[in-house]
Records
---
Amino acid sequence: MPEAAETGADPRHGARLTIDLGAVAENWRRLGAQAPGTPCAAVVKADAYGCGLGAVAGRLWREGCRTFFVAHLEEALAARQVLPEAAIYVLNGLPPGGGRVLAQARLRPVLNAVEELAEWADLSEGRLPAALHVDTGMNRLGLRMEEAVALPGSDLPARAGIDLLMSHLVGAEVPDDAVNARQIEAFARVRAALPGLPGSLANSSGIFLGAAAHHDLLRPGYALFGGNPVPHRPNPMRPVVRLESPILQTRSVEAGERAGYNGTWTARSRRHLATLSLGYADGYPRAGGAQGRALVAGVACPIVGRISMDLVILDVTEAPGARRGALATLIGDSLDVDTVGRAAGTIGYEILTGLGSRYVRAYVE
Ligand SMILES: *Cc1c(COP(=O)(O)O)cnc(C)c1O
């Protein structure tokens, strides 16, 4: 048997991304179980956090998810292809003049300003649903509090077909941050001013802030894809993403030899190195070089030297299983997306949404 078949390396040479759709579905159920009786939506913007919009959205629909959020109109149109019946909300709102395209595809804008509300009201006349976003502390998108509580005197919410009132939490992953209580209180005030409209506040981490944050619709993204919504506690979610690369070649270097661009790493003793088939062009962050690790047959091996566009060098001296064609794990097992993000000086969200399009992708249950 050829070595590649023996080791599971893909002869197409690239790194391999395996996405566990069964784990996405299980995570969606687990998040919903935090608030029994409250429907759980799915945020699938940015190609479902890099995991593939079509595959993820289709799987979650089969699991019973009926409401989806994306950021862009273009993403919503792609989601509509796989979700003919779902409620699909466009978080980034109503693009100027974009109303007809939204209406034709039965998409729902998240109206982020009075101007958007008025524009949609003229098109909808109460027939086309939309969400209304009120900013309770982010100062990013959404009506200001004073604009929202002044709305009851106007016919705009009814004419714009508002069927969901929403806001977004600033720092729900830090449960002690006083901003959470302030936003929960502000959102309750908005809902009292506009009675009769269902509300949605909680992102992944917000779901774990308790019942006061739950309202009528949960809105998780990151945790669906295995990210830890409670960073101060063990991750309650199942891992979704596994990233593996074949070792292209191994070599021994003597003490004093350098490796990688600009020779930023120097061997202190005789070391065994392995070169992997992925790099920053695949979305593996170049800044991950300093602290990054990959697992070879279960042994954590440090990344050495600069990460190249298409290649990464590992110190596999402690990993006897390292040889041409063997697989190294860059995300998976003890290297979860949060750990990989931290090692690169960023967050797991950025690791997921940066997952490259040239990986050989496999979807499993
Ligand atoms: C991205 C986003 C979410 C999902 O947040 P996660 O932290 O990924 O769960 C929810 N609501 C809004 C408005 C968002 O932009």
---
Amino acid sequence: MSFQSGRHFLQIPGPTNVPDRILRAIDRPTIDHRGPDFKDMVFDVLDGLKSVFKTSGRVIVYPASGTGAWEAALVNTLSPGDRVLMFETGHFATLWRALAERLGLEVDFLPGDWRRGADADEIGAKLEDDKNHRIKAVCVVHNETSTGITSRIADIRQAIDANRHPALFMVDTISSLASMDYRHDQWGVDVTVGGSQKGLMLPPGLSFNAASEKALAASNSAACVKAYWSWDEMLKTNETGFFPYTPATNLLYGLRESLRMLDEEGLDNVFMRHARHGEATRRAVSAWGLEIIPRDDREYSNSLTAVLMPEGHDADAFRKIILERYNMSLGNGLGKLAGRVFRIGHLGAFNDLMLAGTLAGVEMGLSLANVPHNIGGVEAAMKFMMQSVTTEQGGGELTRASA
Ligand SMILES: *Cc1c(COP(=O)(O)O)cnc(C)c1O
């Protein structure tokens, strides 16, 4: 590709733009991970993570992508042949299912059309039928990154409780953690899976398991084979501020900085910022006359928006034009949505002008690719951003002037 001036716009829904503060934090000498300076950082980071997951329990950090933490959640709590209930929200739910099956678990996959979130009523009905409690875990993707659909986790918890079902509850928050409200303890989640490269604004390479007491108890009898992913060694060594093997030291520097930044902004303000950018993006898409994937407005994702290409237009050709002309990467369609969908990431280190620039790139791209649309999407987003203000400190109320 020819020389591109200025900054690349990395508007895929993860990895996200890594802020300079985090890059600078990472750009320091690697220290002895068994030396005296290391443990203070570890205590700092493990403590800070608790506020992000909203848990008073343990959070485990792996030097791995999110997929590793998926595997860790399952092998630490389950035994081969155990039945697991999952819901087909989209591509990532489908991948988690395939991983579970490879581990020897029996997956009951509730079918979905990739345009709705995990249905609490359907999950409840399955659990009600499961009188002998053969289902050992319910696994749900909180924010399905292939479709921009957010499932309502508290409702699913209620469905489990209403049936007094003892199954563990596991939730993938890889593309929602630190972007959208999430409450590990309050929502009674047993294992929450997270990753570094989305809302936490870090490069790829770290992933997380937040574990409840119930999950820790299950780990004592879980018979899935594990070594590297084993929680027990990790938890024991973490108590002294260390890791059982070499951790990703420099990414931990970055994580410490990320947690500081989230704390300075305030998590509620972070969520509000994402909510504003989600709404502004949806207004732009609607002004263009294009369609987003989610059908239910209670399930709109605030970290990304997946847009359906009009019939006969190739989403990948469109993304290629935008990359070459405007130096911006948009997310591709995944799985059965390949070529039919493009995804706009609006999560992580992001602000109003970055969103305006992103949407301008999309709008110009639509014209260049001769995709039928109305102009005025950027304008609709700008108007919404001007009229909606967040309260200055810890407010959390989105003031929305009528458009
Ligand atoms: C990105 C993502 C994953 C995969 O994580 P990797 O870091 O690529 O292994 C899993 N689930 C969701 C919801 C994601 O957004």
